[in-house]
Amino acid sequence: MIRKIAVLALLWCAACYSKGPSLGTCNVAADCILPDGGELAGVTCNSDHVCAYACSSICAPAEACVNGACELQGPRITSVTAPTTWTPASSSQFVTVTALVDDAGGPGIASAVLRIAGASNIAGTTSETGLVRSYTFSVPGSVQAAGSETPVNFTIVATDSGGGVTPDRAAGTGQLRIDGKPPAVSGVTVTNGIAGPGGIPWVKSQPGFVEVVAVVQEGGSGINVSTLKLMSSGVQFDQPSIVPPVVPYCTFGTTTACHFNVPQDKPGNSQVKYDFTVVGQDAAGNNFDAATTSASMGIDGAGPTVALSAGSVSYPTKDTGCEGTTSVYCGHDGSHFWRNGEPASAKVNVTVSDGNGSGSSSAVGAVKYCYLPSASAPACTPSLNANFEIGSTFSIPASGFHAAPFSSDTKGNGNIFIQVTAQDAVGNPTTAVLPPVGVTRVKWVRGIGTAPGTLAGAPLIVEPLGLVIVAGKVTTGDAVVAFKTSDGSLAWSFGAGKFTEIVSNVALDPTPSTDGNRPFPMLYLNTSGGDFYAVHFTASGTPSYCMLSIPGLAGSPVIFGGGPTAYAILAAGDTAYSVRASVAGTGCPVSGIKTQIVAAGVTLGPPSANASRIYFGYDNGTTDRGVKSAVFSIASGNFDSNSITSANAGNQPSNSGPKAAAVSPPSDVFFGVDKNNTVYRYAAALGSNTPVWSAATTGANIFSQPVVSGGVVFASTTDLETRNIDGTSPGAFGLAATQVSPPTITTDTIFVSDTKIGPINELLAFDRAKTQLWAYRGDATTSPGTALASVAIEATLASDGTLYFGDSSGHVFALITDTTPTVAAANEWPRTGYDNCNSNHAGNTGFVCQ
């Protein structure tokens, strides 16, 4: 029988025996249809309403029902064998497929082919004869589509010698595992890596290994783990032979993660950066896609370097922050910072560089610093955070230099030493000591114009107005001068044509007041010519004052009350005066004066006060000399004549020279007598000529009255001598001077000036244990010269730690110290002027100095 029946006939035959209701049941033959709607030819619908066909049995896949009988259409493909392994997609790589072709019952096999969609048929070969033969097909890997790793589907058919072809239902099928897509690396991570420059991950050098993980995209033959390695400059740098782990390994999931281990301990504090590739193959032998395998990482074993940035020590230019005239010398000389008071913009910039490593850390606390006492001192513990600026630059504010240990020379200059500790991005630390930074105690030094003269008493500090006021004897011009504390510039001056000399303290009342008679603030002063002045001033001038002429005025006024209630207490001859001055008119009103003869015929010294009791030294011209006191009432403005008491010490309180001096009454009354070089303590109530104790000084002359602080009495002779407040334990500072100034005392520091043979004039700072902290003598070579021309007048310490004092040539010095003033405790008299206002009054109700 000639086999030229179409494939459809086979399908029809299959449909004849279908049991589905749409194919197997019918009413008429037209109801017997294929699923695609085609009609079955030669089919009848029998009486049982079933589609009937002529063949009595189901035909084999290679057969067709023809005229009621199953007839073979072509050779059968009874088995197909294809490799289960993968082959790379290469024209030089071949996949061998075998198939068994059976033409039993047919005329014999003529040929067999392997078909792949879109590719040329591949003819099979066989060495066998007969109706059943094994054919071999050699398929090149190039049949795989470029960049694909999807298995390739194929079919195998044969042709018999009569032209019959294997029907589709009898064809052989299979898949070829041909991998035409190389694995691609979609990302590389370094475990615990810190992003450094360019985002490259870095780890700290330390014993052990760092894990590098490459995420690989591979959907074909899979990864050949044995081929994995990390290569840098042709050298493998991961260590698969080290245990653990033994070799790189991969974990499989949604993506494949391949793990490598790189030795993390780098010798010699080195910094190693690897520009590397992930090398490997898939199971088919495809190399990883080179376009995706490049990566970088670093192992950092060296800390960063720390250095001053180029030009980073930007010292303030000469005269910055000062008036900048020929009358003012500024500590800003172009090579020094102020010890204290620098603005926030003043800083030292530090560069932190990590070379070729992970980069410097900008994290908070990554760069810290502390201050060393010297360049060779043991390391300090960093506790201060440097401020991160730009890039890897950090700044250390000069405003904090007052906290650094500091040894200044006699010019007030010295160096501070800064230790900086930094770390790189992975945490390697570095400690470095910066080059020394120049610092000075000199804020400014001011000369009183072209008319220098001897300054008297202690300077006044008016902090609300930013002024320091000095007074004294000048050859021409004004005797009271105010300078701005900020820069030493002249604010105002007063006294020209009125008086030429002030020989004692000028008192300040800074009490807030809107009273037109005694507005804020007020000065009270006595001139050597016997005139009392009450002066109202501002930050820029002296708009009003009043004056009383009282012949024989002694020393300086005492302030009772303050502001609207203020009284000035004066002494002249044998009379005490209370003056309720008014600057609202043209002169101090006579109606505002109250008087009290303390003791007829005596000469009173300057007043001092404690609470309501006022003390005066006195001298009756014979042997009755000592201290008298009287009570004053602010409420009435009068002295209580019944409260007058006295103590005859045989000598009046005095400093070096013939005039009486003001006593120091912190609790009891302390005073010194220059005539016999003796210091006395009398009970506060007086009334007895016998002192609580008296003690001779060892030094010649008494240059100022005692100061009492911290339970110690200080006497200024040719040394600064001390005794306990009970008169015991005499001691001295060992100054070996020709003259010593009154001390200025804080909780932890004692300031005193002296003149030594030479002459050498200096301002000294001591701690409470009498250990010298520093000395200042100035420098005659500067312009203007800053050398002390004499022993300094009593120094005044501002709340910011600036110490103000003057000398005999009219210089006013502003030195930056390492301490701040303290409020005088009960039973203390910390300066001869008592406080920064020179009020000469302890326990003054309603009065607060600054």
Describe the structure.
The structure is a single chain. The protein is mainly β and 850 residues long. The protein has 5 domains: 7-72, no CATH class; 76-179, Immunoglobulin-like (Sandwich); 184-300, Immunoglobulin-like, CATH 2.60.40; 316-440, no CATH class; 445-842, Methylamine Dehydrogenase, Chain H (7 Propeller). Helix content is 2%, strand content 42%. The chain has 2 helices and 67 strands. The chain has a 6-stranded mixed sheet, with no helix packed on it. Mean pLDDT is 90; it is low at 1-22 and 34-42.
Q: What's a concise summary of this model?
A:
With 850 residues, the protein is mainly β.
Keywords:
850 residues; mainly beta; Immunoglobulin-like; rod-shaped
Tally of strands: 67
Characterize the largest beta sheet: strand count, sense, and whether it forms a barrel: 6 strands, mixed
CATH topology of the largest domain: Methylamine Dehydrogenase, Chain H
Q: Rg, please?
A: 55 Å
Which ranges are low-confidence, i.e. pLDDT below 50, for 5 or more consecutive residues? 1-22, 34-42
Work out the strand percent.
35-45%
- Ends distance: 134 Å
Helix content: under 10%
- What is the molecular shape? rod-shaped
Helical run tally: 2
The CATH architecture classification of the largest domain is 7 Propeller
**Overall pLDDT confidence:** 90
Q: What would you call the structural class?
A: mainly beta
Query: Into how many domains do the coordinates divide?
Result: 5
CATH class of the largest domain: Mainly Beta
| Superfamily (CATH H level) name of the largest domain | YVTN repeat-like/Quinoprotein amine dehydrogenase
Adjacency order of strands in the biggest sheet = 15-16-23-22-18-19
